[in-house]
Amino acid sequence: MAKKITIILTLAFLILLAGCQPKTTPEERLNAYIDHWNSSEFTKMYSDYLNKGTKEAFASEDFVERQQKIYEDLSINNVEVTFTKLEDEKNWDTEKPADFPVQVKMDTVAGPVAFEKNMTLLFETHGETEDWFVEWDPSFIFEQLEKGDEVRVSTTTAQRGEILDRNKKPIAVNGTGYTIGVVPESFTKSEDKKTLAEVLEMSVAAIDEKINQSWVQENQFVPISKAAKNNTKLLEKVKSIPGVSFQETEMREYPYEEALGHLSGYIGPITAEKLEELKDQGYTSTDSIGRRGLEQILEEQLHGENGRKLLIKKQGETGEELLITETPAKDGETVILTIDAELQKSTYNAMEGEAGTSAAVDPKTGETLVLVSSPAYNPNEYMLGISKSRFKALNEDPLNPLFNRFGAAYAPGSTIKPVTAAIGLEAGTLDPSVGLQIDGTTWQKDSSWGDYRVTRLHPEAPNPVDLNTAFVYSDNIYFARQALEMGNNAFVSGLKNFGFEEEIPFALELQTSQISNEGTIGSEGQLADTSFGQGQMLTNILHLASMYEPFLTDGTMHKPLLFMDEEKSQVWKEDLLSAENAEVLREGLRNVVVEGYAQSANSKTVKIAGKTGTAELKGKIGEDGKENGFFVAYDSESPDFILAMMIESIEDNGGSDYVAGFAAKVFEEYKAR
């Protein structure tokens, strides 16, 4: 019996002894705590793992809610917490603290953070539970953080990259302008407010909304609007209103205004939709973003990346700030274009506000020197926030200045005749010295054409009509007969060799030049029409300029370039023309100006060669009887560039010679500079 009692007492003692021992080691408890930490399970960490002293010093909101907010506000992710385990197993003394080196790594909105600290675990009794519990303070969030400190992010704004021309002249740059504003205590009269609203083309209510913002003080300058620094007329009006003034401020500038408006585009405040799309790329609600043109196309290169500092603002009067981590600002790239801004401005001005488009290319390299759409808008107006009345005026202007014409395609008219000739010469069906007997104003191959006849403008052209005469008199019948001679397949193949029906390899989206709507020619009548740039043929202005390159390069057409860092003289098309045939065409193009109907380009200072063209607009409502005029030309002595120009609705201005006169001004100004 005694032996049985002894056994029972021994078992009871062992059970009691086991209950006094910790259920886990401090290593196991810390490992579990860190698992929750890495998963941001702060509630679990607080309720089940913090020791009594920590909970007395920090309420749940100081631990759980604060860390949740910090993690959210600072975009903390990729948290990786580890601890250094002891090399040897040891028996832990529950009367003593257990210390472990803890390594903390994380990514934040301002960059990576990493530090190491000792974490202490104490053996405590919590209710019916005895175990190891963590001693915590805010330095386990960030090493230098103490109770009462604030954590904040400071942003360093990246400079937007600039757009320069080939000579480093500014196209879109970070300059200065003016912020127009009021000081409320000096701006009290309702009539002054009404006057300012009229001058700025905004409502009185909009001015009141800005003045009544919560942060506004009576003696404080309140921004109302912005103005370009060269808008002296507006600034003078503003200056005359009591209580209104303006301050210089950083601002995007477009020095060439309308001349480069469609190419440069402009920036504007980011929209809510775009912000949602780009928020992961560092954009904020106060950012501006490219809205049109190259500002929009090059947004990724130009925008840059804002820098950020993660700071601890210490408690106390000194308010010392400690840097936790920093990502420096990365300014946007400077983009240098092949564009010659002064040549572009000269071309735009030469067009005298007429509706049309122009392009110029360097025939040796393929560099785009000019890309004009006329008329245009001033990007400075849009960047500053265009008024409703001004936008309405632009939108309702019959010349449509908001339409980008260099991106569109047009029937090229007779400017395509040199290309038709080049195809015939290379096919061996056109002998430049052999003349055709052509009589009368109209011609058809035979009665199978029905009512269709080819019409020419100058029936006085002397017979026989050879290639040179056909150029000088721009004889449609001659080129129609040559196209018929070479045949449908040879002609279509030749046009495709010149890049028709193929997307032009260019940095901007341009409408593809087409032979026809279907890309084929379905009848002899259509073949005849297409030979002189009518029918359904369309070409964009840059491609048209590029198509004249083989006449100067003995058969090579280069890929058109827009950026100076692109490899020069990239071959797009080659072997289009022999040197002998190229010489024949150059001679004919010079005679067009000297002997033909481009007399406005027969300059005394520049020996211009080129080809005019007139395209009738057919089939569209309101366009019957209207004609677009073209001139594609170069300086025959110094062919630094080929200029292609188109002016709309020249039917009442003397035809395409009207355009030749505009182009001549460009060449003369270029030579004089």
From TrEMBL:
<feature type="domain" description="Penicillin-binding protein transpeptidase">
    <location>
        <begin position="357"/>
        <end position="667"/>
    </location>
</feature>
<keyword id="KW-0472">Membrane</keyword>
<dbReference type="Pfam" id="PF05223">
    <property type="entry name" value="MecA_N"/>
</dbReference>
<comment type="similarity">
    <text>Belongs to the transpeptidase family.</text>
</comment>
<dbReference type="InterPro" id="IPR032710">
    <property type="entry name" value="NTF2-like_dom_sf"/>
</dbReference>
<dbReference type="InterPro" id="IPR050515">
    <property type="entry name" value="Beta-lactam/transpept"/>
</dbReference>
<dbReference type="GO" id="GO:0071972">
    <property type="term" value="F:peptidoglycan L,D-transpeptidase activity"/>
</dbReference>
<dbReference type="InterPro" id="IPR012338">
    <property type="entry name" value="Beta-lactam/transpept-like"/>
</dbReference>
<dbReference type="GO" id="GO:0046677">
    <property type="term" value="P:response to antibiotic"/>
</dbReference>
<feature type="domain" description="NTF2-like N-terminal transpeptidase">
    <location>
        <begin position="25"/>
        <end position="149"/>
    </location>
</feature>
<keyword id="KW-0732">Signal</keyword>
<dbReference type="GO" id="GO:0016740">
    <property type="term" value="F:transferase activity"/>
</dbReference>
<dbReference type="Pfam" id="PF03717">
    <property type="entry name" value="PBP_dimer"/>
</dbReference>
<feature type="signal peptide">
    <location>
        <begin position="1"/>
        <end position="20"/>
    </location>
</feature>
<dbReference type="GO" id="GO:0005886">
    <property type="term" value="C:plasma membrane"/>
</dbReference>
<dbReference type="InterPro" id="IPR007887">
    <property type="entry name" value="MecA_N"/>
</dbReference>
<dbReference type="Pfam" id="PF00905">
    <property type="entry name" value="Transpeptidase"/>
</dbReference>
<dbReference type="InterPro" id="IPR036138">
    <property type="entry name" value="PBP_dimer_sf"/>
</dbReference>
<feature type="domain" description="Penicillin-binding protein dimerisation">
    <location>
        <begin position="156"/>
        <end position="311"/>
    </location>
</feature>
<dbReference type="GO" id="GO:0008658">
    <property type="term" value="F:penicillin binding"/>
</dbReference>
<dbReference type="GO" id="GO:0071555">
    <property type="term" value="P:cell wall organization"/>
</dbReference>
<dbReference type="InterPro" id="IPR005311">
    <property type="entry name" value="PBP_dimer"/>
</dbReference>
<dbReference type="InterPro" id="IPR001460">
    <property type="entry name" value="PCN-bd_Tpept"/>
</dbReference>
<protein>
    <submittedName>
        <fullName>Peptidoglycan glycosyltransferase</fullName>
    </submittedName>
</protein>
